[in-house]
Amino acid sequence: MPSLTYANYLDLEKLLTLQKPRSTPPEHDEMLFIIIHQTYELWFKQLLHEFEKIKKDFSAGDLFSAIHSFKRARTIMKVLVAQIDILETMTPSSFSSFRDRLDTASGFQSIQFRELEFMLGYKRASTFAEVAEQFLTEHVEAKRSASSARSYRDLLERLASPEIGKRKADKITSAEIQRLHSKNAYTPYQANRLLRVLSSLFTFAGKTHVVPVGFNPCRGIEYFPEEGRERYLTTLELAQIGEAIREAETIGLPYTVDATKPKAKHAPKEASRRTVIGPHAAAALRLLIFTGARLREILHLRWQHVDFERGLLLLPPSKTGKKTIVLNAPALAILNALPRSGEYVIAGTSVDSPRSDLKKPWKAVAARAGLTGVRIHDLRHTHASVGAGAGLGLPIIGKLLGHTQTATTQRYAHLDNDPLKKASENIGSRLAAAMGDLKAPRANVTSISGAKRSKKPARLG
Predict the structure, then answer these.
(1) What domains are there in the chain, each with its CATH number?
(2) Which of 33, 116, 294, 385 has its CA at a distance of 20 to 30 angstroms from the CA of residue 305?
(3) What number is the average pLDDT over the span 124-153?
(4) Cα 37 to chain center, whole Å?
């Protein structure tokens, strides 16, 4: 064991690597900004340490030690105030040179500072609306994808805040949450989603000491049963989809005109009423089927993310981290044949922006294929279902889809029937052989009694 030194006692090697400017190239004053705030956090940690000791000293009746710790805490606070003088040596222009790199980060997000406020008695009761905004800005927008953040905000502002927004967060009861949940029973999936978001909000509020730790009025409320939302396309339906896409990108899909509309008389003749979808829209639909990727992963795909040599899509970090999608031969063929128009694989209305959605082309193709109730996300489910039905195994399917949780892939467990079929075939063949009903037994089928059959005839029943 190496001898103790100043450097390894303070773990300086690690400590001095924690200052990581985000500006490129690094702005000179950003290092100062980081060190000042890291120093604040270290002093906050010491203050919390001192106040914990003060509480114990008071409980033990040791007033002398408590007063000594108070004096130390007061001196630390003086140092904290003095640090502002150092920070003020940074000019507004130097701060603005890297401020945009900080995104939504703010000193108000310091959990230790909130713990100090709470410990010192600053316990102003926040309304639910205030807590919801803090939850969205400090937690959701900082740690979730932009689409998830929009979904969280929509649920809270549209469904929760109008009902309980003015209530003090720490006074909200389980009965109120139950009524809110039940009020949205006509949309069980949305109601359950709201309940999960509310539960996450109160957990966050407890961790930041806005409400007492462990306080969660969502606990114990039963979720509504949900019908499976997954829809898997059959082989026939896939053939119809393929035919519809080919028709759409060549001669176009027929459409109808409402004869009652004023402009109906100016519409093209019926034989000419066809809508052609562009090559990028057609490619996007095929890539969704062949790769099992999410819609935004395809629409926001840049050419720089495509590794043709290794047959991979190397996607940038998202809410599930970095992701690599394996490209099969059909997917590679689509990408190789697709004309390039800007940095995005699926060209949008301009070369600098991705396509926003596939609602119109998918609606037209699905209608032409005679499919009802099929969402575009079901193409991803179909990709997985084909793999599960082929007996590829749920771990492999999960990796192909980029699932970080094995539980997510379990939804396809009932389709992973190849091992079950083999087991059923094995059992059935053994039983049939024992009953004398198997006229042409398979080479790998043995009798139920094992290698050595008893001389006595088997009795069934």
Answers:
(1) 6-95+109-119 (1.20.58.480), 128-207 (1.10.150), 235-303+327-391 (no CATH), 417-461 (no CATH)
(2) 385
(3) 87
(4) 30
pTM summary value: 0.52
> Which residue reads 């992701």 in tokens?
323
Residue 167 has pLDDT above 50, yes or no: yes
Question: Between the CA of residue 62 and those of 47, 65, 74, 75, 261, what are the distances in Å?
Answer: 19, 6, 19, 21, 88
Q: What is the DSSP letter of 199?
A: H
* CB-CB neighbours of 102 under 10 Å: 13
C-alpha to C-alpha distance for 235 and 237, rounded to whole angstroms:
5
**Phi, psi for residue 17 in degrees, rounded to 5:** -105, 5
Res 389: pLDDT? 63
Contact 143, 200 (CB under 8 A): no
Kindly give the residue spans of alpha helices, DSSP state H, lying in 20-165: 28-60, 63-87, 92-99, 111-119, 128-135, 141-143, 146-155, 161-164
Q: Identify the burial level of 429 via C-beta atoms within 10 angstroms of its C-beta, where 0-12 means exposed, 13-18 middle and 19 or more buried.
A: middle
Nearest to 32 by CA among 98, 77, 76: 98
- CA nearest 282: which of 362, 342, 223? 362
Structure tokens at 375: 């969402």
Residue 441 has pLDDT above 60, yes or no: no
What average pLDDT does this structure show over 419-432? 64
| 394-413 pLDDT per residue, tens | 666 666 666 556 555 555 55
Paired strand residues for 460: none
